[in-house]
Amino acid sequence: MTFNSVLDDVQIYEAGKPIELVVREYGVDPKDIIKLASNENPYGTSPKVVSKLEEVSKNAFVYPDDSMYELKEALADKFQVNEHNIIVGAGSDQVIEFCVHAKCNASSKILMSGTTFAMYEIYGRQTGAKIIKTKDDEHNLYQFSLLYEEEGADIIFLCLPNNPLGECLDSQDVYKFLDTVDKNTLVVLDGAYQEFASYKDSAKSINPADVISKYPNVIYLGTFSKAYALGGMRVGYGISNTDIINTLYKLRPPFNITTPTLAAAIEALKDEEFVEECIVKNFEQMTRYEEYANSKGFEYIPSYTNFITMYLGEYNSKQIAQKLLEKGVIVRDMTGYGFNAVRITIGTQEQNTRVFTILDEVLKNS
Ligand SMILES: *Cc1c(COP(=O)(O)O)cnc(C)c1O
Predict the structure, then answer these.
(1) Which atom of ligand 1 sits closest to the CA of residue 226?
(2) Distance from the CA of 141 to the center of ligand 1, in angstroms?
(3) Is the dihedral of CA 311, 312, 314, 318 positive or negative?
(4) pTM of the model
(5) What average pLDDT does range 242-265 have in this prediction?
(6) Which of 163, 230, 256 most suits a substitution to test ligand 1, by most atoms within 8 Å of the C-beta?
(7) What's the 275 CA to ligand 1 centre distance in angstroms?
(8) pLDDT of the residue at 16
(9) With a 6 A CB cut-off, is 192 part of the ligand 1 pocket?
(10) Which of 27, 120, 239, 251 pairs as cysteine with 98 (C-beta 3.0–4.6 A)?
(11) Which of 225, 228, 257 gets mutated to test ligand 1 (max ligand atoms within 8 A of its CB)?
(12) How far is the CA of 285 from the centre of ligand 1 (A)?
């Protein structure tokens, strides 16, 4: 059968491996599995969210509130914007999809960093758009500017901080760049890990209310999947001016957010203390990975997020990741991105201690 030919160039997204697979394929006891490949919050679902989920489960037969009034109000309050400036998606992934489909067709161009979040390219290619990447892997605004002058772009993606590398641009540099961008180019500021970056260094902090008041062509994206510990619930959001938001709404399927998801997100926003504690522990634990890398002579990219990308020197990262997997430690091999490195989500203290022990063992036998 022939299909839409633009799909010939679309790669299928490869998600981090689930616990169930490691149990099935390697016979590891589920309680011994350490899942550090998807940048989830390792401290688990907050107890308040769990009890809220139990409470709403009896209403499973009713369609969700499609206006998402309560969640949008809570987000509007948190970010000091109007509810009309917000769209909620099944993960911020879905909002990325809306953005791409709102702007692009086969003659469009999308500009992004050399190595960045895979979904920008996947959604882009679904429309047949041309994907333009900077030569540098990490964000380099000088190269963005040159390519933008040369080629133009319908969408520019900036990932702040960047997944899978962990670096983050300074917000002042981002704003200076935005000043140079044509108002018909949509700029997506992906803030999936902003909570981490702005805690570590206020110079990285992006204020969505400021951004949208100054730049009518920018959308800021946030998610509940990372710091807010709701990866399994699938919820994220976009903040932008009403012209953009109203257009994205044309692409939104009805009831895209389920009742339990809405309830969980609203509850999670009430418990900022939990989120902050997790972020503090994240960076405490991050230093252990830096020390570990230094002790082995491995280079790493200084990280503003909840993961660290560590080069493995003369070891083969694909083999090391596989051997870790067989011992129940799930990390992300970066060979597919052209790096002999692994990306490891920062786990809890106990998890990280075990990761170092198991990694020592694996390295010794490699
Ligand atoms: C995780 C992630 C997202 C979105 O995740 P959702 O679970 O779909 O909200 C978006 N951008 C980046 C860079 C991410 O790492």
Answers:
(1) 1
(2) 22
(3) negative
(4) 0.97
(5) 97
(6) 163
(7) 17
(8) 80
(9) yes
(10) 251
(11) 225
(12) 22
Write out the two tokens for 223: 């998610």
- Looking at the CA of residue 116, tell me the nearest atom of ligand 1: 13
CATH 3.90.1150.10 residue ranges of the chain are 5-45+273-364
Q: What's the CATH code, domain 47-271?
A: 3.40.640.10
State the span(s) of the chain assigned CATH 3.40.640.10: 47-271
Query: Which CATH code fits 5-45+273-364?
Result: 3.90.1150.10
Pocket test for ligand 1, best of 41, 75, 88, 93 (most atoms within 8 A of CB): 93
How does the average pLDDT of the chain come out, rounded? 97
Residues 98-108 have a mean pLDDT of 98
Residue with tokens 């399927």: 253
What pLDDT is attached to residue 92? 98
Of 117, 84, 42, the closest CA to residue 238 belongs to 84
- What count of residues does the chain have? 366
Give the pair of three-digit tokens for residue 49. Answer: 């969210």
